[in-house]
Design a protein that fits this description.
The complex is a heterodimer.
Chain A lengths: L22 H14 L7 E5 L14 E4 L5 H11 L4 E7 H7 L1 H10 L4 E6 L34 H7 L4 E6 L3 H13 L4 E6 L11 H4 L4 H4 E4 L6 E2 L5 E6 L2 E6 L21 H7 L8 E8 L5 H15 L5 H5 L5 E3 L2
Parallel strand pairs in A: 1-2, 1-3, 3-4, 4-6, 5-6, 7-11
Antiparallel strand pairs in A: 5-11, 8-9, 9-10
Chain B lengths: L5 E5 L1 E9 L4 H14 L3 E7 L14 E9 L10 E6 L2 H6 L4 E10 L5 H6 L16 E5 L1 H8 L7 H6 L1 H12 L5 H10 L4 H20 L5 E5 L7 E7 H16 L3 E5 L6 H8 L7 E4 L3 H13 L3 E6 L1 H17 L4 E6 L16 H6 L8 E4 L6 H15 L3 E6 H5 L1 E5 L45 E3 L14 H16 L11 E2 L3 E8 L3 H13 L4 E6 L1 E3 L5 H5 L2 E8 L4 H9 L6 E4 L8 H13 L1
Parallel strand pairs in B: 1-8, 2-5, 5-6, 6-7, 10-11, 10-12, 12-13, 13-15, 14-15, 19-20, 19-22, 22-23
Antiparallel strand pairs in B: 2-4, 3-4, 9-16, 14-21, 18-20
Helix pairs in contact in B: 1-6, 4-8, 6-8, 7-8, 9-10, 9-14, 11-12, 17-20
The chains are: A alpha/beta, B alpha/beta.
């Protein structure tokens, strides 16, 4: 296979996101992650809906399709079913995936079709200039709700797990290395891989994730989960997560007789999603926010199921051509 | 017993089976259809059933009917009114009282004419006891009682016995029309292969019905309908929805493409999904999506990736697919959208037929977004029009809307089996590896662009719903480019007129009256024009299948007649479309919006009035 670099994945189109937008870092991380995958460039397809993030395919020098608002999972499903050999990436935002496209989003996860969904979550509508989204924090004041929102936000992880999602990862736009690692793992996972990227909108919702990504707070406000490793975090890596009864709790090793043995070990491959959901729900100030691959369970995929049925039917069916079908069943001759 | 029953030869006959929606009338009608087809009759059928799966038992709302017209002459419609009605309960009799020929034969299940069932049907007293049906030949058959009697030793429970009574009615009608029962026996053996006791019971009841008819003196004669004079060849029965599915299968095979269907169940289009879902052996991928929108969007995704992609729906579903269709027009991707029309607006009349989605198909999208629109006109030619839709969409890389309707979709007729090799070649417009590729460069003649399929080395490119720059396909907000691209998209559709055949007419090339129809009204319009031609009238029928673009010779045809009348099952959508395209020509209208096809009686009477002016 020819050696590809990030330049091979850079299209000739001028990137038109606002200066300082988190999307730039995501684009760069993707252009760096793809060459490392054992794949031909022509086999990548990027499908998007509508919104700031959905302009992403124009900037990738791959096959791409900027479709209609909310429906990208359906387009991506058609692409994958038509040619299961392709590596299919869906780029979406919190409005695109969770408001207008909520239905398609949950059904893609339920079917577990082998596509990768990158959810750029900035908790705001950018392209329509600043209305609240289904992930906006309750009470936020925007143009479309100047007195503060009264609706509860969605938690993408809960939605994904509720829809029986097999893969859920979370990353922040300020951590390019972790992004690259997660993109690679998402591609390697068979089934629908959902990656939530906490992405900063500098214009309409600046610093909404400052409590997680702020330079001063991030070491105590983030926990980067690794499969098979204890859930430790903090500048000294001496804080950890334990399960106390039915609730998670933050503890410090060395205090109250807590040792490293008491700390939960992260098991991304566990089929039961209970602990994955609890961990994914953690938020500062009480907890660090969980980043990394939170859930990665191998279930059979929708495309595998369809292909195996096709193969079985092709081998075992009565007829192999359309003409045989047309002549099958009850027929009669008319002679002139 | 009269052993010298007369057998009378009939040219044609219309039979209607009617009962409760749980009485198995559709199956009974289908069996009579298949047997008649095997005997070589020409035929047309019309199932008419309620939208509810099991509407309240015994009520008029719950009546399900199946009408079949068989003949030894050319049959083009399921018949206006029935010569023979089988009414399994009082409600079935009431629902059909205006649809039975004066003097016709009515077979009623007399066991259901109890006070309770009469009340449910809205009768105070039995209509058989007053003079409501004077002049009709009423056969009072104790169908429930005799079915129970026949099966008393079968070991079946009461519910299963009750379900067999449709076979009794079928047996009676088989006797009346001198039909053999073997085809139905074979069918039952196959359908209930795992329940031999059910097979035996149904066959026994059918024979009981046959013998009952043979014995009673109420039926002094039986009838025969000899085989029709069809063109030589191998025939089978097809329903419109099935023929559409097969047309796509044939097109995919000839185009060397995989067939992809993204669809969401909706009456009366679901049978296309059911049919294609059966044929994974032929490489068809069917995807039952989470909604209508996902149906079309998955199909567009598959089209972008190289499949012959289709989506199937009915009116309300087409409304939901509008944005997706607009994207396929902008991205210039092949796609066939099948709309099996039903009564509208909104949920409307789900199980009834109508032609009221024409304007929606032509214009129901934002922006200037022209689409090719085709219409099939008989159950059998649904095959040809699905094939034609596939050919146009793959060669011109623009979406095609194919209009069928509930009447065509569920109707059946004998179909002379075609071979895929009889169909025209399909040459998809696709770029290959190594070629200089510009996504929006065009064929000079057709203006079609070429697709480059994901997986093809070196042809990576981006498509989308934002306006495209001419040639490069890059996003462009340039004012003049937009106007140019709007023009190109329109011109591309117009030029399809250059490759389609001329519009044909049936009847006189010049004359007093030109009857115009489109799509599913062909059978009734043809029958009436044929009758009037035989009576010496200077009349012709011009039935359109190409709606957009219209055939090039259309206006030439219009000049040859003193009067033109456009007949359609809506308030005049095609008439208005013609007025827009041919200003100055006077188009009269004949419209019907009752959820039912035209009757030949109403058409003939209206045309005669026009001709006498």
């Amino acid at each position: 296979m020819e050696h590809l670099t990030n330049k091979d994945f850079t299209s000739d189109q001028e990137v038109k996101w606002c200066p300082g937008c988190g999307d730039y870092a995501i684009l760069r991380a993707m252009q760096k992650a793809l060459p490392a995958l054992d794949r031909k460039k022509e086999d990548f397809v990027f499908i998007s809906g509508i919104g700031c993030s959905s302009r992403f395919p124009y900037y990738m020098n791959t096959y791409g399709f900027h479709t209609i608002h909310g429906r990208a999972p359906a387009f991506a499903t058609g692409v994958k079913l038509a040619n299961p050999k392709l590596s299919v990436w869906q780029i979406t935002g919190d409005g695109d995936a969770l408001a207008i496209g909520g239905n398609h989003f949950i059904h893609a996860l339920r079917r577990n079709i082998d596509i990768n969904i990158l959810l750029f979550n900035n908790e705001i509508y950018g392209l329509t200039k600043g209305q609240f989204s289904p992930t906006s924090k309750k009470g936020i004041k925007t143009k479309s709700n100047p007195h503060g929102t009264t609706d509860e936000p969605f938690s993408p992880s809960d939605l994904a797990i509720g829809a029986q999602g097999s893969f859920f990862a979370r990353v922040v736009d300020t951590n390019p290395k972790l992004m690259q690692k997660i993109f690679t793992e998402a591609e390697e996972h068979r089934g629908t891989s959902l990656v939530e990227i906490l992405q900063n909108c500098v214009i309409f919702n600046d610093k909404t994730f400052a409590d997680i990504t702020g330079k001063e707070v991030k070491q105590n406000a983030q926990i980067i989960l690794e499969d098979g490793k204890p859930m430790l975090f903090g500048s000294e890596m001496n804080q950890g997560i334990i399960l106390n009864g039915f609730k998670l709790e933050v503890v410090t090793i060395g205090e109250n007789n807590v040792t490293e043995k008491d700390i939960l070990i992260h098991d991304a491959k566990e089929q039961d999603p209970t602990l994955h959901a609890m961990v994914a729900r953690m938020r500062p100030p009480e907890f660090p926010a969980a980043l990394g691959i939170i859930r990665a369970v191998r279930f059979s995929t929708f495309d595998e199921g369809l292909l195996s049925q096709l193969e079985y039917e092709k081998e075992n069916a009565k007829f192999k051509t359309v003409d045989e079908l047309l002549k099958s069943g009850e027929t009669w001759e008319v002679k002139s | 017993m009269d052993t010298t029953t007369k057998v009378i030869d009939l040219e044609k006959v219309v039979i209607k089976f009617a009962g409760d929606s749980g009485d198995g009338m559709q199956l009974t009608g289908t069996q009579f259809t298949d047997t008649s087809a095997l005997l070589g009759n020409d035929l047309a059928t019309f199932p008419d059933y309620p939208a509810e799966i099991r509407a309240p038992q015994g009520t008029v709302a719950g009546v399900s009917g199946f009408q079949i017209h068989i003949g030894r002459i050319d049959i083009n419609t399921p018949g206006d009114i029935a010569d023979v009605l089988v009414a399994m309960n009082p409600a079935a009799l009431k629902a059909n009282k205006n649809w039975i020929k004066k003097g016709g034969t009515i077979i009623v299940n007399i066991d259901t004419f109890t006070k309770r069932d009469l009340v449910k049907a809205g009768y105070e007293t039995s209509p058989l006891d007053d003079n409501s049906f004077d002049g009709y030949n009423i056969i009072q058959a104790p169908i429930t009682k005799l079915t129970r009697e026949a099966l008393k030793d079968s070991g079946l429970d009461g519910k299963s016995i009750g379900r067999s009574k449709n076979m009794f009615a079928l047996g009676v009608v088989y006797w009346m029309f001198n039909r053999p029962m073997e085809q139905t026996e074979k069918f039952l053996q196959k359908k209930f292969a795992k329940k031999p006791e059910v097979v035996a019971a149904n066959i026994k009841v059918m024979h009981a019905g046959y013998n009952f008819a043979d014995t009673i003196e109420a039926l002094p004669s039986s009838y025969t309908v000899l085989s029709a004079n069809l063109k030589s060849g191998t025939y089978r029965n097809v329903m419109g929805n099935q023929a559409i599915a097969w047309g796509f299968l044939a097109a995919a095979e000839r185009a060397n493409k995989e067939l992809f269907l993204g669809s969401y169940p909706i009456t009366p289009a679901s049978d296309i999904l059911h049919e294609l879902a059966k044929h994974k052996n032929l490489g068809v991928k069917t995807f039952q999506a989470e909604d209508e929108i996902a149906g079309i969007c998955s199909a567009i995704g598959a089209s972008f990736t190289g499949s012959l992609a289709i989506t199937t729906t009915s009116g309300p579903g087409l409304a939901l697919k509008g944005e997706g269709l607009g994207l396929a027009i902008m991205a210039e991707l092949p796609l066939v959208v099948v709309n099996v029309q039903r009564g509208g607006p909104s949920t409307g009349l789900p199980t009834k037929t109508e032609q009221s989605d024409l304007m929606q198909a032509l214009y129901g999208r934002n922006g200037e977004s022209p689409s090719v629109v085709l219409a099939s006109s008989t159950p059998g030619n649904c095959f040809d029009w699905a094939y034609m839709a596939s050919k146009i969409t793959l060669e011109h890389n623009t979406p095609v809307v194919l209009l069928s309707d509930g009447y065509l979709g569920n109707g059946a007729e004998p179909w002379k089996i075609k071979s895929t090799m009889d169909m025209p070649e399909i040459n998809p417009s696709i770029a290959i590896e190594g070629e200089e590729y510009q996504p929006y460069a065009r064929n000079e003649k057709t203006l079609a662009r070429k697709l480059a399929l994901p997986g093809t080395k070196g042809l990576e490119h981006r498509l989308g719903g934002l306006e495209k720059e001419d040639i490069t396909g890059n996003v462009s907000y340039d004012a003049e480019n937009h106007e140019k691209m709007v023009g190109i998209r329109a011109e591309k559709i117009k030029r399809i007129a250059n490759i389609i055949p001329n519009q044909e007419i049936f009847g006189k090339e010049k004359g007093d009256l030109l009857v115009i129809g489109w799509g599913g009204t062909h059978g009734s319009l043809y029958s009436v024009v044929d009758t009037l031609l035989k009576k010496g009238q200077k009349i012709a029928l011009c039935q359109f299948n190409f709606i957009n673009p219209l055939p090039r010779n259309t206006s030439e045809i219009f000049k040859n007649y003193k009067q033109i009348i456009v007949c359609e099952l809506n308030s005049g959508q095609f008439a208005n479309y013609l007025r827009m395209n041919f200003q100055g020509t006077i188009f009269h209208q004949y419209n019907k919006i009752q959820g039912f096809p035209f009757t030949t009686i109403e058409l003939e009477s209206h045309f005669k009035t026009l001709l006498s002016k």
